[in-house]
Amino acid sequence: MSETSSASSPFPPNDGKSEGIDAQDGNSIIPISLNEEISPNLLQKMVHNALVWCSLHGLVVGDKNNQRSGKVPGVGIVHAPIALLPMSFSQSHFRQACELAPIFNELVDRVSLDGNFLQDSLSRTKKVDAFTSRLLDIHSKMLETNKKEEIRLGLHRSDYMLDAQSQDILQIELNTISCSFPGLSCLVSELHRHLLSHYGGDLKLDSTRVPENMASTRYADALAKAWKEYNNARAVIMIVVQTEERNMYDQHWLCSILKEKYPFYLCAKTLAEIATEGKLQPDGTLLINDQLVAVIYFRAGYTPNDYPSELEWSARLLMEQSTAIKCPSISYHLAGTKKIQQELAKPNVLERFLDDNDDVMKIRKCFAGLWSLDDSNIMKDVMESPELFVLKPQREGGGNNIYGDDVKQTLLKLQKEGSEELAAYILMQRIFPTESPAFLVQGGILHEEHVIAELGIYGAYLRNKEKVIVNEQCGYLTRTKVSSSNEGGVVAGFAVLDSVYLT
Amino acid sequence: MSETSSASSPFPPNDGKSEGIDAQDGNSIIPISLNEEISPNLLQKMVHNALVWCSLHGLVVGDKNNQRSGKVPGVGIVHAPIALLPMSFSQSHFRQACELAPIFNELVDRVSLDGNFLQDSLSRTKKVDAFTSRLLDIHSKMLETNKKEEIRLGLHRSDYMLDAQSQDILQIELNTISCSFPGLSCLVSELHRHLLSHYGGDLKLDSTRVPENMASTRYADALAKAWKEYNNARAVIMIVVQTEERNMYDQHWLCSILKEKYPFYLCAKTLAEIATEGKLQPDGTLLINDQLVAVIYFRAGYTPNDYPSELEWSARLLMEQSTAIKCPSISYHLAGTKKIQQELAKPNVLERFLDDNDDVMKIRKCFAGLWSLDDSNIMKDVMESPELFVLKPQREGGGNNIYGDDVKQTLLKLQKEGSEELAAYILMQRIFPTESPAFLVQGGILHEEHVIAELGIYGAYLRNKEKVIVNEQCGYLTRTKVSSSNEGGVVAGFAVLDSVYLT
């Protein structure tokens, strides 16, 4: 989350994992707009239709103005913040991003198996980032006891931006824990197809150009297949949740699809509840209130805020020690950190994990420039042209990025504090994404804005000891952000949900 | 609406047409309960599941705590107040109520054709009730100009209670304008089937015993068929709406089904908008903003509050004068008043309108005792046993009924004021419905209460000059009310939505 948000923006700051955009911003080419020449009358009708559709079809979130909206379902509901129309992407860029999903799935799996690589790469981060340090401690314990995860389930989302100058799709980050919006993203695609099927004629837009989005169904299928691999008919799928969650309906959609399609039982527990109700059996199985857990799906545990006391850490350790299939395991979680992203971008590192040269090339093509701060060559460049870089803290969540002249000032400050502090950050090439006009609807109000977009591609991966069972691209989500809020180099983590229009 | 509500009740007073129960209450037999012996744990799971289901599937209303919730869709949404389980009715009672629907449809149509009967029956009411008087004025104008409604569309809901002592289904009232909940009632049935399919085993309840509910689809079909009868491809269906409507999602469901199934255009207008935007053409057709109107569906105009100025009355007259198909016409509207209900209950009146003797008998069987206050025989009985009667004001909306000793006091007061004032009321046999325990969920909170239930049966009727096109029962809705709130004879108009479980 951003620590500073633009007061003049009509959009409230984001307050949940991955809801914010880990934005890199700039002013650049204005592309062909979907949104030109729409009459105010048509616009008004479309907004009304969209608001009604959201309300009737569960494209909703908890209203931050209602205190109970994150605690109890059914109260304080408001439509999700949405773009009225899908964001245009070229077929080739969209296909490229989709094709990367199974390769990244494979890459995460391979990296997760190399415990020393994870420990070594994160050794300096460990000293300055308490959260990563705790995760690494759990990881170390697993290495010490030679704990193996034979069935491995990954539900990832890789986020990209289109660099306007190079016209390359560049990866912003790879989320390997608690990817948000698999449920709502499908609804946004459906909403846009609905709107275009009614108003597409007037807009000269074709509803079939909004790609099919199966994120929630495919995620549910992958969870169900993992449960089947665990092979115990009495075992349950446990969802690790936050004590308050305004994005609860996104999760409820996934659970609802699971419940309708599959007979097994689901339970939702907070880390604190798991600590008190969980019990590790001598055979390594995990019981929650005497119920055997087959699969643990994390929708919490990705931020230090989720671990207010040792109780929560003990729950995380307990789960990791168990034979339950963790989505993600501690290794998968660590494999998704920015520092690992940066390590993988170093020459000859991808080759250690991927056998196929084509795959290596495809992945490398989507990497933006990534450096650690002990790289003296790049530091010189940064001091000369800080506007071309982004300084990113290690920790997950996005939004704390540093831009513009602040990059230089921060680096000077960190250098004074010593090299340890530098290890808490990585440096990334600043992507200047294409900016486009958009109609955003939030709190029932329409805003015409210039936005930048981040394309997220959902991936699912499941394997057992013998073979890969699932390795696929599942769906997509575009999140847009008001680009003007980035003036002065401060990026506020706004999240407005959007889909894709293939051009 | 009730003028006094029980402060201790957890349920907010109803504030919309037909949302309240026009309740007649009492303590009587406790029937076989659906709700006994449910463990707190199971109950908690069911409530959570129900709240999630409502949120994802649009079983929602505007939250009265949110000022914008009645004006803008998508904001200030809360789950509809619901009973957790369906209300049990015997198959024979349910079938009986359903079979009455086409007969009442026919009856309303026949009564509507007898302008003198309507005028004569309501002549005394006219003098004391300004609202009915205005409706009658419009009706008179139509009679004077010999205005005919050749295509007639009725979307009615007849409400019943089960009298515990006689075990008879008795009619409370027949709504011929703006029947609420055709949209949400279907969702409540679906919710209950969903809950019983998941938890029915534990509860020993069978989800297939919740009858199919097609109210919204059938209402949409009837509106579409009326549009077709009007026979102008460029004409629209206009919905007359209130300026604020917290029950908007019920209406949106109906409109949404119409839009998906049929190609024509819908518009929603307030009475004030119709007054300024509407124009009667020389050929009698109605234009709204130069758009021809085929069908007018009223979801407003049933209460004096909807006519704050002459503007709104001019809109009502304009519509009535037009060739557009009104649902309802002024005659249909008047045919649904309580005074007409009471007139129809008089000996040999039904026979004037219905040809089939069986139909007459079926209708008569569901009539409670109904009297006007100039009936001196019954007045004597009332003074002796006021607890056996309900005093009902003429005006639509329900909830202002007078019970218990207040009946006597009010009658004495009215008698002093003279016979004119007496004409503003009708007297009805007090029905003592069966009371049963129920789990009610409102504002995300579960309440265990003893409730009484009112069964509403939706009916649709459409005919043209030659023939009847639609005459059917469409669906149903049970509304429950906390019976304890009726202590002291004051009935608050609470509405909790429920479905039916056939026993």
TrEMBL record, chains A, B:
<dbReference type="InterPro" id="IPR014049">
    <property type="entry name" value="Glutathione_synthase_N_euk"/>
</dbReference>
<dbReference type="GO" id="GO:0000287">
    <property type="term" value="F:magnesium ion binding"/>
</dbReference>
<feature type="binding site">
    <location>
        <position position="175"/>
    </location>
    <ligand>
        <name>Mg(2+)</name>
    </ligand>
</feature>
<dbReference type="InterPro" id="IPR004887">
    <property type="entry name" value="GSH_synth_subst-bd"/>
</dbReference>
<feature type="binding site">
    <location>
        <position position="173"/>
    </location>
    <ligand>
        <name>Mg(2+)</name>
    </ligand>
</feature>
<feature type="binding site">
    <location>
        <position position="454"/>
    </location>
    <ligand>
        <name>ATP</name>
    </ligand>
</feature>
<feature type="binding site">
    <location>
        <position position="479"/>
    </location>
    <ligand>
        <name>substrate</name>
    </ligand>
</feature>
<comment type="pathway">
    <text>Sulfur metabolism; glutathione biosynthesis; glutathione from L-cysteine and L-glutamate: step 2/2.</text>
</comment>
<dbReference type="Pfam" id="PF03917">
    <property type="entry name" value="GSH_synth_ATP"/>
</dbReference>
<feature type="binding site">
    <location>
        <begin position="428"/>
        <end position="431"/>
    </location>
    <ligand>
        <name>ATP</name>
    </ligand>
</feature>
<feature type="binding site">
    <location>
        <position position="251"/>
    </location>
    <ligand>
        <name>substrate</name>
    </ligand>
</feature>
<feature type="binding site">
    <location>
        <position position="157"/>
    </location>
    <ligand>
        <name>substrate</name>
    </ligand>
</feature>
<feature type="domain" description="Glutathione synthase substrate-binding">
    <location>
        <begin position="235"/>
        <end position="335"/>
    </location>
</feature>
<dbReference type="GO" id="GO:0004363">
    <property type="term" value="F:glutathione synthase activity"/>
</dbReference>
<dbReference type="InterPro" id="IPR016185">
    <property type="entry name" value="PreATP-grasp_dom_sf"/>
</dbReference>
<comment type="function">
    <text>Catalyzes the production of glutathione from gamma-glutamylcysteine and glycine in an ATP-dependent manner. Glutathione (gamma-glutamylcysteinylglycine, GSH) is the most abundant intracellular thiol in living aerobic cells and is required for numerous processes including the protection of cells against oxidative damage, amino acid transport, the detoxification of foreign compounds, the maintenance of protein sulfhydryl groups in a reduced state and acts as a cofactor for a number of enzymes. Participates in ophthalmate biosynthesis in hepatocytes.</text>
</comment>
<feature type="binding site">
    <location>
        <position position="396"/>
    </location>
    <ligand>
        <name>Mg(2+)</name>
    </ligand>
</feature>
<dbReference type="InterPro" id="IPR014042">
    <property type="entry name" value="Glutathione_synthase_a-hlx"/>
</dbReference>
<dbReference type="InterPro" id="IPR005615">
    <property type="entry name" value="Glutathione_synthase"/>
</dbReference>
<feature type="binding site">
    <location>
        <position position="403"/>
    </location>
    <ligand>
        <name>ATP</name>
    </ligand>
</feature>
<keyword id="KW-0460">Magnesium</keyword>
<keyword id="KW-0547">Nucleotide-binding</keyword>
<dbReference type="GO" id="GO:0005524">
    <property type="term" value="F:ATP binding"/>
</dbReference>
<feature type="binding site">
    <location>
        <position position="487"/>
    </location>
    <ligand>
        <name>ATP</name>
    </ligand>
</feature>
<dbReference type="Pfam" id="PF03199">
    <property type="entry name" value="GSH_synthase"/>
</dbReference>
<keyword id="KW-0317">Glutathione biosynthesis</keyword>
<keyword id="KW-0479">Metal-binding</keyword>
<feature type="binding site">
    <location>
        <position position="481"/>
    </location>
    <ligand>
        <name>ATP</name>
    </ligand>
</feature>
<feature type="binding site">
    <location>
        <position position="173"/>
    </location>
    <ligand>
        <name>ATP</name>
    </ligand>
</feature>
<protein>
    <recommendedName>
        <fullName>Glutathione synthetase</fullName>
        <ecNumber>6.3.2.3</ecNumber>
    </recommendedName>
</protein>
<comment type="subunit">
    <text>Homodimer.</text>
</comment>
<feature type="region of interest" description="Disordered">
    <location>
        <begin position="1"/>
        <end position="25"/>
    </location>
</feature>
<comment type="similarity">
    <text>Belongs to the eukaryotic GSH synthase family.</text>
</comment>
<feature type="binding site">
    <location>
        <position position="338"/>
    </location>
    <ligand>
        <name>ATP</name>
    </ligand>
</feature>
<feature type="binding site">
    <location>
        <begin position="392"/>
        <end position="401"/>
    </location>
    <ligand>
        <name>ATP</name>
    </ligand>
</feature>
<keyword id="KW-0067">ATP-binding</keyword>
<dbReference type="GO" id="GO:0005829">
    <property type="term" value="C:cytosol"/>
</dbReference>
<dbReference type="InterPro" id="IPR014709">
    <property type="entry name" value="Glutathione_synthase_C_euk"/>
</dbReference>
<dbReference type="InterPro" id="IPR037013">
    <property type="entry name" value="GSH-S_sub-bd_sf"/>
</dbReference>
<keyword id="KW-0436">Ligase</keyword>
<dbReference type="GO" id="GO:0043295">
    <property type="term" value="F:glutathione binding"/>
</dbReference>
